[in-house]
Amino acid sequence: MKQLVAEGLPQVSVTTLGRALAHVGARLGTPKPIVLCPWPRARRIERLAEIRRVEERATPYEPVLYVDEVDIHLNPKIGRDWMLPGTQRRLVTPGTNRKFYLAGGLDVLTGKLVTTGLDKKNSDLFIAFLKVVDRRYERARRIHLILDNYKIHSSTRTTAALRAYGDRFVLHFLPPYCPDANRIERVWQDLHANVTRNHRCRTLFALLARARCFVDAYQWKRTANTVSHEIMRAA
Known about the structure:
Strand order of the largest sheet: 3-2-1-4-5
Radius of gyration: 21 Å
Number of domains: 1
CATH class: Alpha Beta
CATH topology: Nucleotidyltransferase, domain 5
Helix content: 25-40%
Largest sheet: 5 strands, mixed
CATH architecture: 2-Layer Sandwich
Number of helices: 8
Number of strands: 5
CATH superfamily: Ribonuclease H-like superfamily/Ribonuclease H
Distance between the termini: 31 Å
Order of helices and strands: HHHEEEHEHEHHH
């Protein structure tokens, strides 16, 4: 109601407003915090279009992977769950949290994931990921990685490691603060929804075993004719 008043619109009853929200299919959800990209809109859209062109040129000899890291915490992520009327589910947490980090790449041709992990989210994690990708795609002439601007992707140690591979790896950086343009972000959302949210694992080992089953079985399916829509949404 306050928003209607702020926008100079006619005031209506709560019942009428409720019917209107139901009519348009509105839902009660949790807002998503974002940081605005500092780039001008035209520059941002052009970079995203370049990224999609790289993706569309992917071949078995020049694979393209969307790359990102994800945190796995022993303390469960809290989310919505089914409960009987008058009850509230309780989650027993371990008290002392433990963390592990996965680095992953989503192959746009096969839809499969390539992952590795360490107990620290630093340059070592990304360098270990490069080694795994190098072995996985030993027959590839060149490997294209689409990734964000996180510091471990361009650190001094990472740059030295990439230099040792010659021109085998080509990094394509997304515009800053554009996570929706990175296809693997949705994979991590699914990982949290199916593995870490409201989990009951008592040890990090058990939780990581579930995460491993998830990433090994994951199969991404690209929806046709969505490239332009994704560019505009991420822009």
